[in-house]
Design brief:
By secondary structure, the chain is mostly helical. The chain has eleven helices and four strands. The strands form two sheets. It has a two-stranded antiparallel ribbon. Strands 3-4 form a two-stranded antiparallel ribbon.
C-alpha cells in the first residue's frame, strides 16, 4: 500500500496563500494594534485606532448635566482602518462557519454558489445595520420631525451612536474593495455599487449631512435586506419567489421616499436656514453649488437604480412568459394523426386477398 501524497502548502504571498490565510493575517494585525494598549509608549497611538476621536463636552439647556458629543477629523481614518480589519475577520467567520456549511448541503452550481455567498454576507450586514439604524432614529427622533433634517445646519456634532455607525459603515464598504481580489466573476457590478456606497456615506459624513444620510440609509437597507433574503430562499427552493414581489413594491416606495426627502432638504430646507455660505473651519457647506451637486448625485443614483430594476423585472417577465408557453405545449393534448389514404399497392393487395378468400374459391369451383 503506497503512502498518501500530502497536499503541499502554497508559496508564501501567492494568490492561493492569501486566499487561505488572509483572515489570519488580518487578525494578527488587529492583535498588534490591541497589544499596543498595554504599553505606555504605544498606547496613545493604539487608542487612536480603537476608540472614537474628537469628543466635545457640551452643556444641556436648562440643565447642568453635560453631554459628550463628537466631531470628525483626520484621525477618523485610523479608526476606520481598524474596523475595516474587524469587518474582514467577521466576513471570514460568517463565510466559514455559516455559508460554507449551508452550501455543502445545497450543492449549488458555481454561479449560484458565488451569488449565495454574496447574498448571505450582505443580508447579515443589512440586518445588523437596519436594526442599529432604527434604534438611533427612535432615540434621536429623526423621523418624527422632518424639519430636523436641516434645522440648525451645520450639524457638526454627533452623539456617539451616530458617529460610530458611520465609521462602521465606511469600514464595511471599504473592506469590500480588497475582498474583490478573491472574486472571479461579476466584479464590475460589485465595484459599481461598492463605490456608490462609499461615495454617498462618506459625503454625508464629511458634509455634515449625517441626519439625512441616516434617514435615507435605513429604508434602503430594509429593501436590500428583503431582496437578498428572498434570493437566499430562492436558492434553497426555486418555488419560493413571493419575497421578490414584496421587494419590488418596497423598492419603488424607497426610491420615491429618497427623492422626496432629498428635494425637501436641498431644495427647500437648506436654502432657508440662517447659516448660508462655505466655511471649512465651521463645517458649513450650505452653498448652491454643493446643494445642487448633492441633489444631482442622489437623483442620478436613483435613476440608475430604477433603470436596473426595470431591466431586471423585464428579464423576469420574459423568463416567466417563456416558461408558461413551454408548459402549455407540454400540457396540451397531442393531435391525432390524419388517416392515410389507401395507396395503389394497398388496394391491389386487398384485391388479391379478397380473391384468395374461401368464398372466391367456391365461386371459381362452381
Amino acid at each position: 500500500m503506497g503512502f498518501r501524497k500530502k497536499n503541499k502548502s502554497p508559496p508564501v504571498l501567492s494568490h492561493e496563500f492569501v486566499i487561505q490565510n488572509h483572515a489570519d493575517m488580518v487578525s494578527c494585525l488587529a492583535m498588534i494594534i490591541l497589544l499596543g494598549l498595554m504599553f505606555e509608549v504605544t498606547a496613545k497611538f493604539a487608542i487612536m485606532f480603537i476608540t472614537v476621536q474628537y469628543n466635545v463636552t457640551q452643556a444641556q439647556d436648562e440643565k447642568q448635566e453635560t453631554v459628550n458629543l463628537y466631531q470628525y477629523g483626520p484621525k477618523d481614518v485610523a479608526t476606520v482602518f481598524f474596523y475595516l480589519l474587524i469587518a474582514v475577520i467577521l466576513h471570514a467567520l460568517i463565510q466559514e462557519y455559516i455559508l460554507d456549511k449551508i452550501n455543502r448541503r445545497l450543492h449549488l452550481s458555481k454561479t449560484k454558489h458565488s451569488k449565495f455567498n454574496e447574498s448571505g454576507q450582505l443580508a447579515a450586514f443589512y440586518l445588523f445595520s437596519f436594526i442599529w439604524g432604527c434604534s438611533i432614529l427612535t432615540a434621536e427622533d429623526f423621523a418624527t420631525n422632518p424639519t430636523f433634517l436641516w434645522e440648525g445646519y451645520p450639524h457638526t456634532r454627533m452623539v456617539f451612536q451616530v458617529k460610530f455607525f458611520y465609521i462602521c459603515q465606511m469600514a464595511y464598504w471599504l473592506h469590500a474593495l480588497p475582498e474583490l481580489y478573491f472574486q472571479k466573476e461579476d466584479i464590475p457590478r460589485q465595484l459599481y455599487y461598492i463605490c456608490l456606497y462609499v461615495v454617498h456615506i462618506t459625503g454625508a459624513y464629511v458634509l455634515n449631512l449625517h441626519r439625512l444620510g441616516l434617514v435615507l440609509l435605513v429604508p434602503h437597507y430594509l429593501v436590500e435586506l428583503l431582496f437578498h433574503a428572498s434570493r437566499l430562499f430562492y436558492f434553497s427552493d426555486e418555488n419560493k419567489q413571493k419575497g421578490f414581489t414584496l421587494w419590488a413594491l418596497l423598492f419603488v416606495i424607497a426610491r420615491l421616499l429618497t427623492l422626496t426627502l432629498s428635494v425637501l432638504t436641498f431644495g427647500f430646507g437648506l436654502p432657508r436656514t440662517e447659516n448660508q455660505g462655505f466655511s471649512l473651519a465651521e463645517g458649513n457647506f450650505n452653498v448652491l453649488t454643493i446643494r445642487m451637486t448633492c441633489l444631482a448625485a442622489i437623483c442620478l443614483t436613483q435613476a440608475w437604480m430604477m433603470w436596473k430594476f426595470i431591466n431586471f423585472q423585464l428579464k423576469k417577465w420574459r423568463e416567466h412568459s417563456q416558461n408558461q408557453a413551454s408548459k402549455k405545449k407540454t400540457v396540451s393534448p397531442k393531435s391525432k394523426p390524419p388517416k392515410r389514404e389507401p395507396t395503389r399497392g394497398g388496394s391491389a393487395n386487398g384485391v388479391v386477398k379478397s380473391e384468395t378468400s374461401p368464398r372466391a374459391r367456391k365461386a371459381k369451383a362452381s
